[in-house]
Specification:
Elements: H1 2-16, E1 30-33, E2 36-39, H2 48-57, E3 69-70, E4 73-74, H3 76-86, H4 95-98, E5 103-105, E6 115-118, E7 128-136, E8 139-146, E9 150-155, H5 159-164, E10 165-170
Antiparallel strand pairs: 1-2, 3-4, 5-10, 6-7, 6-10, 7-8, 8-9
Helix pairs in contact: 2-3
């Protein structure tokens, strides 16, 4: 009798865990957007400039490393080189050579993805580069790799960068 009770409880326990509800797979309507399909819950594809800026922002907080081009560490031109390369745009590896590419534009006309160049040394030689992330109401913000703070976003309103700004260039 004792064995019969134990077997009954075991069978009840095993069948109690079984679900009787059937689930259907959820389907989404798809729409066409410039030959790409996406689901309602997905974000529309970004412009190349927005994608480059978004890629650059993934490196925020990365430590500074001279010559670096990865999440382990990067320098200013390494950041720009890496994020443009991800979009199949190959730029020179150093800021001085980068400054020779693209079309020169006024700082006030910059848009996301444009490059800003600085001379931070004693001589009037370009040795630092950043990429515009925002130009709103006359305030230009840019992402760059600072030797003291790593990859950060700064503002052209900061005296340090305002005094050392050389030129802005549009690559795209």
């Amino acid at each position: 009798m004792k064995n019969y009770i134990i077997i009954t409880f075991l069978l009840l326990g095993l069948t109690a865990c079984k679900t009787t509800k059937t689930y259907k797979a959820k389907t989404y309507k798809t729409k066409t957007y410039k030959a790409n399909t996406y689901h309602k819950h997905q974000v529309k594809p970004k412009s190349k400039q927005e994608q480059i800026v978004a890629n650059a922002k993934t490196y925020l907080g990365t430590r500074y490393k001279y010559g670096g081009t990865s999440t382990k560490g990067m320098d200013c031109s390494g950041l720009i080189y890496t994020v443009y390369k991800k979009e199949q745009i190959i730029l020179p590896r150093v800021s001085t050579a980068m400054s020779q590419e693209g079309k020169k534009i006024a700082l006030s006309k910059t848009k996301k993805g444009d490059l800003v160049f600085f001379s931070t040394g004693k001589h009037y030689k370009i040795n630092h580069v950043g990429m515009v992330t925002e130009n709103s109401k006359g305030v230009v913000r840019f992402i760059h790799a600072s030797s003291s703070r790593g990859v950060i976003i700064s503002s052209m309103d900061e005296n340090y960068y305002k005094k050392r700004f050389v030129k802005a260039k549009r690559i795209l």
